[in-house]
Amino acid sequence: MLYFSRALKCFLKLAVLLTVVFVIMNLTGTLETGGLPLARALFASSRGVILLAVIVVWSAAYPLASFTRTSIRMAWDSEKIENAFATYGYELECESEERMTFRAKSTLRRVLWQFDDSVTVTRDGGFVDIEGLKRIVPRVETRLKAGLR
After folding, report:
1. Structure pTM?
2. Which residues make Cβ contacts (< 8 Å) with residue 49, sequence separation at least 6?
3. Is the dihedral angle over the CA atoms 39, 41, 46, 50 positive or is it negative?
4. Inter-residue contact 43 to 52 (CB < 8 Å)
5. Could you give all domains of the chain from N- to C-terminal order, each with its CATH number?
6. Residue-wise pLDDT tens digits, 75-107
Protein backbone atom coordinates (compact mmCIF):
# COMPACT_ATOMS: atom_id res chain seq x y z
CA MET A 1 0.00 0.00 0.00
CA LEU A 2 2.88 2.37 0.80
CA TYR A 3 4.42 1.69 -2.62
CA PHE A 4 1.13 2.53 -4.39
CA SER A 5 0.67 5.69 -2.35
CA ARG A 6 4.17 6.93 -3.19
CA ALA A 7 3.73 6.12 -6.89
CA LEU A 8 0.37 7.90 -7.00
CA LYS A 9 1.81 11.00 -5.29
CA CYS A 10 4.62 11.10 -7.84
CA PHE A 11 2.16 10.74 -10.73
CA LEU A 12 -0.01 13.56 -9.41
CA LYS A 13 3.03 15.80 -8.85
CA LEU A 14 4.20 15.23 -12.44
CA ALA A 15 0.69 15.78 -13.83
CA VAL A 16 0.40 19.09 -11.96
CA LEU A 17 3.85 20.11 -13.21
CA LEU A 18 2.88 19.29 -16.80
CA THR A 19 -0.37 21.24 -16.43
CA VAL A 20 1.48 24.27 -15.05
CA VAL A 21 3.91 24.18 -17.99
CA PHE A 22 1.04 24.06 -20.50
CA VAL A 23 -0.82 26.89 -18.73
CA ILE A 24 2.30 29.07 -18.78
CA MET A 25 2.86 28.27 -22.45
CA ASN A 26 -0.75 29.13 -23.21
CA LEU A 27 -0.57 32.43 -21.30
CA THR A 28 2.66 33.48 -23.01
CA GLY A 29 1.36 32.62 -26.46
CA THR A 30 3.96 29.93 -27.16
CA LEU A 31 1.29 27.26 -27.41
CA GLU A 32 -0.59 27.02 -30.70
CA THR A 33 -3.70 25.49 -29.20
CA GLY A 34 -5.31 25.46 -25.78
CA GLY A 35 -8.05 23.86 -23.73
CA LEU A 36 -9.83 20.81 -25.11
CA PRO A 37 -8.00 20.85 -28.48
CA LEU A 38 -4.75 20.69 -26.49
CA ALA A 39 -5.91 17.63 -24.57
CA ARG A 40 -6.95 15.93 -27.81
CA ALA A 41 -3.67 16.84 -29.47
CA LEU A 42 -1.68 15.63 -26.49
CA PHE A 43 -3.31 12.22 -26.19
CA ALA A 44 -3.96 11.64 -29.90
CA SER A 45 -0.36 12.20 -30.96
CA SER A 46 2.46 9.72 -30.53
CA ARG A 47 4.48 12.35 -28.62
CA GLY A 48 1.66 12.81 -26.14
CA VAL A 49 1.31 9.06 -25.62
CA ILE A 50 5.08 8.75 -25.10
CA LEU A 51 5.03 11.63 -22.61
CA LEU A 52 2.19 9.99 -20.69
CA ALA A 53 4.01 6.63 -20.75
CA VAL A 54 7.18 8.25 -19.39
CA ILE A 55 5.20 9.82 -16.55
CA VAL A 56 3.56 6.49 -15.68
CA VAL A 57 6.86 4.56 -15.83
CA TRP A 58 8.70 7.18 -13.75
CA SER A 59 5.88 7.19 -11.18
CA ALA A 60 6.05 3.40 -10.91
CA ALA A 61 9.85 3.44 -10.56
CA TYR A 62 9.99 6.36 -8.12
CA PRO A 63 9.32 4.37 -4.91
CA LEU A 64 11.96 1.81 -5.87
CA ALA A 65 14.52 4.42 -6.87
CA SER A 66 13.98 6.88 -4.03
CA PHE A 67 13.59 4.80 -0.87
CA THR A 68 15.97 2.41 0.86
CA ARG A 69 16.48 0.31 3.96
CA THR A 70 19.77 -0.41 5.69
CA SER A 71 20.98 -2.17 8.85
CA ILE A 72 23.82 -1.13 11.12
CA ARG A 73 25.37 -3.42 13.71
CA MET A 74 25.31 -1.25 16.81
CA ALA A 75 23.75 -0.96 20.24
CA TRP A 76 20.52 1.00 20.50
CA ASP A 77 21.47 4.52 21.57
CA SER A 78 18.50 6.84 21.05
CA GLU A 79 20.50 9.96 21.89
CA LYS A 80 23.18 9.19 19.31
CA ILE A 81 20.55 8.37 16.69
CA GLU A 82 18.62 11.56 17.43
CA ASN A 83 21.81 13.66 17.15
CA ALA A 84 22.68 12.06 13.80
CA PHE A 85 19.28 12.99 12.38
CA ALA A 86 19.37 16.49 13.87
CA THR A 87 22.57 17.13 11.90
CA TYR A 88 20.60 16.72 8.67
CA GLY A 89 17.57 18.79 9.67
CA TYR A 90 15.34 16.02 11.02
CA GLU A 91 13.48 15.98 14.32
CA LEU A 92 12.05 13.17 16.38
CA GLU A 93 8.35 12.76 15.69
CA CYS A 94 7.57 9.78 17.91
CA GLU A 95 9.51 7.25 19.93
CA SER A 96 8.85 3.90 21.53
CA GLU A 97 11.13 1.29 23.05
CA GLU A 98 11.75 -0.42 19.72
CA ARG A 99 11.12 2.33 17.16
CA MET A 100 11.83 5.98 16.39
CA THR A 101 10.31 8.06 13.60
CA PHE A 102 11.90 11.26 12.30
CA ARG A 103 10.48 14.00 10.06
CA ALA A 104 12.11 16.90 8.27
CA LYS A 105 11.95 20.15 10.27
CA SER A 106 11.49 22.27 7.15
CA THR A 107 7.98 22.54 5.74
CA LEU A 108 9.47 23.23 2.30
CA ARG A 109 11.34 19.90 2.41
CA ARG A 110 8.18 18.09 3.41
CA VAL A 111 6.24 19.59 0.51
CA LEU A 112 9.00 18.92 -2.03
CA TRP A 113 9.29 15.33 -0.84
CA GLN A 114 5.50 14.90 -1.06
CA PHE A 115 5.20 14.41 2.72
CA ASP A 116 7.13 11.12 2.37
CA ASP A 117 10.00 12.57 4.39
CA SER A 118 9.64 10.29 7.42
CA VAL A 119 12.50 7.97 8.31
CA THR A 120 11.90 5.02 10.61
CA VAL A 121 14.57 3.55 12.87
CA THR A 122 13.83 0.18 14.49
CA ARG A 123 15.74 -2.05 16.87
CA ASP A 124 16.38 -5.56 15.57
CA GLY A 125 18.47 -7.49 18.07
CA GLY A 126 22.01 -6.14 17.83
CA PHE A 127 21.16 -4.19 14.70
CA VAL A 128 19.52 -0.85 14.00
CA ASP A 129 17.39 -0.74 10.84
CA ILE A 130 16.87 2.59 9.07
CA GLU A 131 14.21 2.96 6.38
CA GLY A 132 13.36 6.07 4.36
CA LEU A 133 14.48 8.39 1.56
CA LYS A 134 17.75 7.62 -0.18
CA ARG A 135 18.65 11.28 0.28
CA ILE A 136 18.96 10.94 4.05
CA VAL A 137 19.40 7.26 5.03
CA PRO A 138 22.99 6.84 3.69
CA ARG A 139 24.06 10.11 5.32
CA VAL A 140 22.73 9.09 8.72
CA GLU A 141 24.18 5.60 8.28
CA THR A 142 27.64 7.06 7.60
CA ARG A 143 27.36 9.37 10.59
CA LEU A 144 26.33 6.56 12.92
CA LYS A 145 29.08 4.25 11.65
CA ALA A 146 31.65 7.03 12.15
CA GLY A 147 30.50 7.28 15.76
CA LEU A 148 31.22 3.58 16.28
CA ARG A 149 34.94 3.99 15.59
Report:
1. 0.72
2. 43
3. negative
4. yes
5. 2-65 (no CATH), 68-148 (3.30.160)
6. 888 899 999 999 999 999 999 889 999 999 988
